[in-house]
Task: structure prediction
Amino acid sequence: MTQKKVSIALTGDRPTGPLHLGHYVGSLLNRLVLQDTHKQYVMIADVQALTDNFENPEKIRENLFQVACDYLAVGIDPDKTTIFIQSMIPEIAELTIFYMNLVTVNRLQRNPTVKTEIQQKGLAKKLNAGFLCYPISQAADITFIKANIVPVGEDQLPMIEQSNEIVRSFNRIYKTDVLVEAKALVSKIARLPGTDGQAKMGKSLGNAIYLSDPSDVLAKKVMSMYTDPGHIRVTDPGKVEGNCVFAYLDAFDTRVDEVEELKNHYRKGGLGDVVLKKRLIEVLEGVLGPIRERRKQFEQDRAYVFSVLKKGTERTREAAQETMREVRQAMRLDYF
Ligand code: TRP
Result:
């Protein structure tokens, strides 16, 4: 067995849908590495998912199971990684309340991730306090376990920055070093565009390829992928930059030299989109095929999946209670 460092990694995903390739390159791959070198916690963020889905608890409940299946299928190993459910750790909610005093409403409104999401999801007119404050709750997610490394996609950087601000305020105000600052671990592939060419792949954007997509769905999504609208005839020179198919080949095709040749050929003209898309389908099938197979087995064994979540959640709670004791002491709330 590899020597585990004292370092603690934590991440999570909102169970608003099954996980997609953006999650895969953004942080799942890093988690597969970290589970051999760090103490790692992976959280299913159902509380955060509810902030803009509070009217659909069934949706979150079902997707919590789907996300758990995705984790296990990609190879997150419950013997190495503790997988837990956010809403089952009341200490996270408790910490969130304490942290609320340390963050101005103004600061929350300036959080770039929240701003973008409010815009994308059209939440401006019905912005509830829960959604606006989810960066505070995310700071509680990161700090309750004293995580110092957070493997995430680059869109989450402002969240970690805000969390670290809270850590510094808390430690300064309560004259303590209980809370620990965290570093983001951003993947080499900063972000994967959506199949429509938009900068970000997202469930709510309808441009995602899911780990659970069957072969025919995967093929269809690739065949309709955004390439270069100026590349009309095969003989036309084509653009590689901003072309989704190349972005995906860069991310997943390990034959780097061949991909470079294809890029040159495409730029010169004479290489059709269909040839490239067929190659991409093959490459993605190679990645997703085995995941899809394993996933099917977990999907059929709800009892096993929930036993993993229950064990992970119990283990997490013990650690949470330890941090809470220290926090209460620092805040002079340790009455008896
Ligand atoms: N905000 C993350 C997302 O939307 C999910 C998340 C919740 C998270 N809590 C976290 C990520 C703590 C990292 C650390 O995908």
About this structure: The chain has a mean pLDDT of 95. The chain is about 55% helix and 5% strand. The first strand starts at residue 8 and ends at 13.
